[in-house]
Amino acid sequence: MSNKIKFGLKNVHYAVITETDGVITYGTPKSIPGAVNLTLDAAGESVQFYADDSVYFEENTNDGYTGSLEMALIPDEFRVDVLGYEVDSNGTIGENKDAKVKKFALMFEFDGDAKKTRHVFYNVLAARPTISGSTRTNTKEPQTETMNITARPAIDTGDVHWKVKQGDAPYDTFYTAVYLKNAPTNTIESADDEFDKNDPADIIIDCASTDGNNEIKNVLLDGLPIAGVKLTIVGVDVTIDQSVFAGLALGNHEIKVEFLKGNAVTVIITVKETTP
Q1: Residue 235 class from Cβ within 10 Å (0-12 exposed, 13-18 middle, 19+ buried)?
Q2: Which candidate, 89, 134, 138, 151, has a CA 20 to 30 Å from the CA of 57?
């Protein structure tokens, strides 16, 4: 089956870029629901040098892409994380003229792609979306929001765009961390999956990485970091103190282990309370 057309933009994610002393790091990817359309046109120019009455040297520069991202509704979380919107003490949200827009990695895929390829652009800047609306008529026409975007080469590596197709090692964990060229693959070798409040014990998660020097960056419980005093980390193996789970509600809870390099891994812990 060949790729003749692309349609069905889906699984759009963004990861905010942080630059510290020239070192680039990417935040944990977050989903943007309601993707409608993505258009990207190649940016660059042809550089020509003439000598001996002919083109002596010619080169095409790669300045990335320019285009637009159309969404059913741009979520407030994205506006705060990327566009610099503020949330005040009353929980309202708004923008200030001094707001600083942040760059981010953009990740997505197309439902109509026969190879189910997943894409990442490493250095994206979004312009503020236009605010528009129309009065109600006898027909309901859905309104969307569109941001103009530019995708430039990454500041540190120069990489613009990378693709991971189904069957590649990083495919299943693609949206857990921004994929970087030659990134290691991280997996779980073994992990506890239950915590009994009437028979408490520490939770142990044994991980493995194809990079023998890889390190753990964060351990999250239901999306929030676990305090370091509650963790014991040896290499890429994690022990979480039982006190972390003692006050949790019964049911399933997600533990996510994030690494300095490569994908994150997740474990679902079921908290139960057996009858004595």
Answers
A1: middle
A2: 151
